[in-house]
Amino acid sequence: MNKIRIGTRSSELALWQANTVAHQLETLGHETEIVKIDSLGDVVLDKPLYELGITGVFTRNLDIALLNNKVDIAVHSFKDVPTKLAEGIVQAAVLKRGDFSDILVIKDDVNFFDNHSAIVATGSLRRKAQWLYRYPNHTITGLRGNIQTRLQKLEDNDWDGAIFAAAGLKRMKLLPEKQKGLKLDWMVPAPAQGAVMVAALGDKEELLEILKEINHEETALCVGVEREFLRLLEGGCTAPIGAMAMIIKDEFKFKGVLFSPDGKHKMEYSKEVDADRKDKIRYIAEKAANYIIDRGGKKLMRPEIEIEKEINVFSTKFLSQDQANSIDVNINIEMRDFISIRNNRLKPIVVKNPIKNVVITSQNAVEALLSSFSSLELNFENIYCVGKRTKRLIERRIGKVAKVESSAAKLAKYLVENLEEKEVTFFCGNKRREELPLILEANNITVNEVECYQTNLTPKKLDNKFQGLLFFSPSAVESYLLENKVAENEVAFCIGDTTATEAKKHFKTVKVAKLATVESVLKSVNEYEFKN
C-alpha cells in the first residue's frame, strides 16, 4: 500500500499517540505521514467539555478529513471518541492500553485532601462528581487546555490540586514530584481511558487488514465493554459515568458507576467472570446498564430532578438481576463478592474405593467434587448434608441423600445418635466451621476431612456508610471486617444462624432470614423499618 496518512490533533499528547501508531506501522514495513488537524475541543478552552453541549468535540474534524480522503486513518484518545461513530467510519485498531487511572497533582500541601475545605481543579464532570462524593466539603473549579497549560494554571492559581489522567502525564514525561495516584476503587476512570484508537473508512479493506496487525485484542475487549456500558446509559461527556474492565489472572473484572452531577448520589455495578467466557462477557455491559437504569439511573443523570433520600444497603455477595430488582424501590443496593471460591484439584485416590458415609455441608463442596470427578466416579453409599438447596444439588448431580438437616450442629447430633459405622468422610473447605467435626470426634466418630475448595477473602473498604449489610456466610462477615468498622446504626442481615452467630460478635442489630435463601434475606431487608 502507498504511504499511510495519519490524521491527528496537534497537541503534544495527540502527536505522541499518532507517532506511536506510525512507529508500529513502520516496524511492519509501511510508510507513514503525520497530518495535523485541529478540533473544536482544542479551540474552545474557556468552557468545561460538558458545557459545550455536543459529543465528539475532539473527533469531528478528523472524521471530516477521513470522509473527504484527506487522511487514511485518524488516531484518537479513545475516551474522547463518541460511542456512535460517523457513518462510514469504523474502529480499525486499539493499541495496548496504558495506565488508565487518574492522578492528583498537588500544589503545595501533600495532605490537603484531608482538609475540611480545599479547591481542586478539573474539567471532567466524572472526576468532579467522584471527588465531591468522597470529599463533599471541597470546591471544584474548571480546568481546560493541554497538559502543559493545565499544569501552568495550577501553578498560577490559588488551588490545592488538579486531577489528570495518569497516561497523559506519563506519556509526556511530565509527572510531577508532588502527586498522588487516586485509587480505582473510588475514582473510577472514564470508559476507554488510557487507550489509543485508530479509525478508518469501513470500505478500505486492504488498510483494515494492515491495521489488524497493531490491534491489541485484550485491550479492545475490555474497552469495548466499557464503551458499551457508556452507550447504553446514553452518557457521553454530559454524564458522570466511570467504567473499568480488566483481565487479571484469567478473570475478567468489570465495574461501572454513575454519579449525580453534584456528587451526592452513586450507583455501582461490579461483575467477575472467567476470561475465556466470551459468551458471558458480551452481556456484562447490558446487565450493568439495565441494573443502573432500573434503579433510577436516568433520574440520577438529570440534576434538575430532585432525588429523594434513599436507604442504602450493601450485599457482600453479587446478586442476580432478578434478586436485585426484588429490593424495594426506596432502597438502593450495592454489591460485591467479599469472598471467592477456588476448587482444589483432588487426586483419584480420594474416591478410588467406595465411601460408606459422606458429609457435605455446602453447595461449594458439591461443585468442587464435580470439578475433579464425574458423578459416576463418586461412589458414595450414604450422603448426609446441610441445607435443602445442597440436598437438591446433590440429588440432581450425584445421588440420593440419606439425611438433611438445617445446620451442621443438628446434623452432627443426628449422626451421633444414628450412625452405626463410627467413621465419616467430610468434604469441606479451608474455612469450614468447627461444630460438626468437634461434636463427632467428641463422640468417638472418626472424621476424615478432605479439603476440596478454598475460600479466599476479598475485602473492600466501603466509601460511605450503609444502613444495612447483607451476609451470606461467616467468612463474608470476616472479610468485611478486615477493611471496615461497624457503625452504631448498621444492621446485619444474615442468611442463617451460623452466619448470624458470627455477625452478633460485632453488630448490635442482627436479623436472620426466615429461610436459608438469598430471596429470604432480601425479603427481610424490605420488611425492616430503617431509622433515617
Under CATH, the homologous superfamily of the largest domain reads Periplasmic binding protein-like II
Shape: globular
So, CATH architecture of the largest domain?
3-Layer(aba) Sandwich
Share in helix: 25-40%
* Distance between the first and last residues' Cα: 68 Å
Low-pLDDT segments, ≥5 res:
40-55
Can you tell me the CATH topology of the largest domain?
A: D-Maltodextrin-Binding Protein, domain 2
Share of residues in strands = 25-35%
Estimated structural class: alpha/beta
| Rg measurement, Å | 28 Å
> Quick one: how many beta strands?
24
CATH class of the largest domain: Alpha Beta
Structural account:
With 532 residues, the chain is an alpha/beta fold. It folds into 4 domains: 1-95 and 195-215, D-Maltodextrin-Binding Protein, domain 2; 102-182, Periplasmic binding protein-like II (D-Maltodextrin-Binding Protein, domain 2); 311-317 and 458-527, Rossmann fold (3-Layer(aba) Sandwich), CATH 3.40.50.10090; 342-457, Rossmann fold, CATH 3.40.50.10090. It is built from 19 helices and 24 strands. It has a 6-stranded mixed β-sheet with strand order 16-21-20-17-18-19. Strands 2-1-3-10-4 form a 5-stranded mixed β-sheet, with helices on both faces. A 5-stranded mixed β-sheet has the order 7-6-8-5-9, sandwiched between helices. Helix 17 (474-483) links the parallel strand 22 and strand 23 (491-494). Residues 40-55 have low confidence and may be disordered.
